[in-house]
Design goal:
61% of the residues lie in helices and 6% in strands. With 308 residues, the protein is mainly α. Among the domains are: 64 residues, no CATH class; 50 residues, no CATH class. One of its GO terms (biological process) is protein folding.
Length: 308
């Protein structure tokens, strides 16, 4: 099986990419020398160290130098180009992959290329890194990874605010129903000097929809709070009475599956119209292995009254 190196200058669907280049012979010789020098190397060891099977490239240059195969591939890939040049090619390749993508595979390819460009942090301009983050955010938007999309947009905006980054952030935030974030991103996007009339219209539409959704959400939350207050009013009154009469509550000293049966669909502690406290009482007779549950015991009565 013939292996090929990755050339960021080569078009994505160029059949020449499948043809081996002469410089690869040196790389194969290095791999062969490593194999001869390490006869005890297992297949797993080989796959972990072989660039063709790697999922991540070490960031430490010394680790790359210790792996001749990886060092050879790095030499073939980067040559004497500057990190800025290489990052630009990753951007261009990513843009090409995203433009030609018809589904997940193409999106994943584009994301990988943008990520490779972002990995070249040193000597890469802030403007280019901003573009790479923004473009990767578009891929995350395609994948419906809305949280990651917003994170990449924020990184892009920190480096250099752009209309695309703000608009992609608004779309992702809207999908997550984070209406405050949508409004914030729209407001900041509209303040950019570079925003066009068409882009302004898009921001204003997103802003209008977000404000409408936020108003509806706040209305629903207010209604739910009102219902909760009505539902909890009797219990809140009980708590107030207990506090006024300095009656502390303690945790239950026992656990029983029967407690759910006793309290289910029954009115618990409450205060009547005359201000008297009523509460349920559970009597347990350990010696007989029996219990009695009295649902409503006024505070004016004694336990003896109930036992009689």
């Amino acid at each position: 099986m013939t292996a090929t190196t990755f050339d960021p200058n080569m078009p994505i669907l160029n059949p020449d990419a499948l043809e081996p280049r002469g410089d690869e012979d040196d790389m194969y010789d290095k791999w062969f020398e490593v194999a001869k020098a390490n006869p005890d190397t297992t297949i797993d060891d080989y796959e972990n160290e072989c660039p063709l099977f790697m999922t991540d490239v070490p960031s430490d240059p010394t680790l790359i130098d210790k792996n001749p195969a990886l060092a050879a591939m790095q030499d073939l890939l980067y040559n004497d180009d500057t990190p800025q040049d290489i990052a630009e090619r990753f951007r261009d390749r990513g843009n090409e992959a995203l433009k030609m993508a018809t589904g997940v595979v193409g999106w994943r390819t584009a994301k990988g290329l943008y990520t490779e460009g972002l990995a070249l942090e040193r000597e890469v301009s802030s403007e280019l890194r901003s573009i790479l983050f923004s473009n990767r955010a578009q891929v995350e938007l395609n994948f419906k990874n809305y949280g990651n999309c917003i994170k990449d947009c924020v990184q892009s905006i920190r480096l250099k605010p752009t209309v695309k980054a703000y608009f992609r952030a608004t779309k992702a935030a809207a999908a997550l129903k984070k209406w405050e974030t949508v409004l914030e991103m729209c407001e900041k996007g509209l303040q950019l000097d570079s925003v066009t009339k068409t882009e302004k219209a898009l921001f204003l539409k997103q802003q209008q929809n977000a404000q409408k959704s936020l108003d509806q959400l706040q209305k629903e939350e207010a209604e739910q709070q009102r219902k909760d207050a009505i539902e909890n009013a009797p219990f809140e009154r009980v708590k107030m009475i207990l506090k006024q009469r300095q009656l502390p509550l303690a945790a239950s000293e026992f656990e029983s599956e029967q407690m759910g049966f006793y309290t289910r669909d029954r009115q618990l502690a409450h205060v009547d119209l005359e201000g008297e406290l009523h509460f349920p009482v559970l009597f347990m007779y350990d010696e007989a292995g029996q219990s009695d549950f009295i649902e409503d015991v006024p505070e004016s009565t004694s336990f003896l009254d109930q036992l009689d």
